[in-house]
Amino acid sequence: MLAEAASTVSDEYWLAHALKLAERAQAINEVPVGAVIVHEQRIIGEGWNQPISSTDPTAHAEIMALRQAAQVLNNYRLLNTTLYVTLEPCVMCAGAIIHARVKRVVFGAFDPKAGAAGSMFEVLGTKKLNHYVEWQGGVLAEPCGLTLKSFFKARR
């Protein structure tokens, strides 16, 4: 669902929206991760984890949001966009974010097992690639982390 918002909103606002999308993933027994892509203060893409339900290993929240944003902009380059995601992107998603030329990534919880923004790998912030992505982690870290912890605790 595409939506518009007030002319100036905070990173917390957009990340709170991504948390609502994570609930959609949880409702279908997927790992609760949600993502939103914003361009000029407007949501142009959103997604939630769907690899199990779609039998698609690439159907992470970020990838789903990137696909939708590219369709909205009619361009595979997502220049001057910010991606908000509830969990630090993995290597696959970080690669796609770089190829799409996303300007900035803001995420909630760090992922010490698979994070590609410094937790496990430094893919997003590297200056060795042809595109540098600005990133900030830990925004709304507590609610994002609790959503994931609750999900995995219930599954055990």
Describe the 3D structure.
This protein has 156 residues and is α/β, with parallel strands linked by helices. 37% of the residues lie in helices and 18% in strands. It is built from five helices and five strands; from the N terminus they run αββααβαββα. Strands 2-1-3-4-5 form a five-stranded mixed sheet. A hairpin with a 2-residue loop joins strand 1 and strand 2. The chain is globular and about 40 Å long. The protein starts with 10 loop residues before the first helix and ends with a helix.
List keywords for this structure.
single chain, 156 residues, alpha/beta, five-stranded mixed β-sheet, 5 helices, 5 strands, 18% strand, globular, disordered N terminus
The whole-angstrom Rg is 14 Å
Shape by Cα distribution: globular
Mind describing the biggest β-sheet?
Answer: 5 strands, mixed
Q: What's the end-to-end separation, in Å? A: 32 Å
The overall strand count is 5
Unreliable parts: 1-7
| % residues in beta strands | 15-25%
